[in-house]
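Q: Make up one entry.
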Amino acid sequence: MDVIQIALRAFFALVTLFVITRLSGKKQLAQLTFFEYIVGITIGDIAAFIATDIENNLVHGYTSLIVFAAIPFLIDYLSLKSKFVRDLFEGKGTVLIKKGKILEDNMKKEHISTDELLEQLRLKGAFKVADVEFAMLETSGHLSVMTKKQAQAATIKDLQLNLPEEQEPETVIMDGKIMLDPLRASGRNTDWLNTELEKAGVKLDNVFMGQVDASGQLYLDLYNDQLQMPQPSQNQLLLASLKKSQADFEMFALETKNPETKKVYTKAAEKLQSTIDQLSPYLR
């Protein structure tokens, strides 16, 4: 009887914990505050006692469990209404690097060693402290890093390129089966897909996953990892040919001494460069 009673207690305690977890939202462990972390441990201990201590009063156990579960909901509600409560229970971020200068006092306050700081910077892709303009230790324990302007990678906006909006690829094959709705959403049909599979020399039942991007390229992942998929090369060859032609026009413009001819070559090089900029996202 004791075994059955413990089994039932454990089952209902687990169900209760599941309900509490679902109601508490989808925060990851790294995003929990210290208070929520402590409450979570306490709730787990209470549930363990409810499940295993058959002499314990179930009403008392579940009452304490509900109280500890209700506290975070109350704190979350008050935190939304009051910044003081939010700062009190969630804390504030701490600046560790400001204007390229490491703030040693703040590091001591947060018990962060130099090695730990360097490790966190490396995880953010900043291997040189000299490249860091600003770094803050968030309340979640993560380090937010902003590199200096000259150390940042150039973006499409920086290059002032007019590129089409990126579109989500459609998964048209999954577990060896054609997904008709995503295939229609991609603007293609089963005939096109079967033709592409035939070109690749692959059977449908050997395809674990297939995706189509906005440019119409079909990516295939096979069950048999030993098979090597042929890499598309026509687009790359076309792009390389366009770039070579553009470079030839620029060279001709530099070599010719005729002003009119130079003007024609220069204009052709500029037009071809504009075409390359527009086509590059589809040909890479």
Notes: The chain has a mean pLDDT of 80.
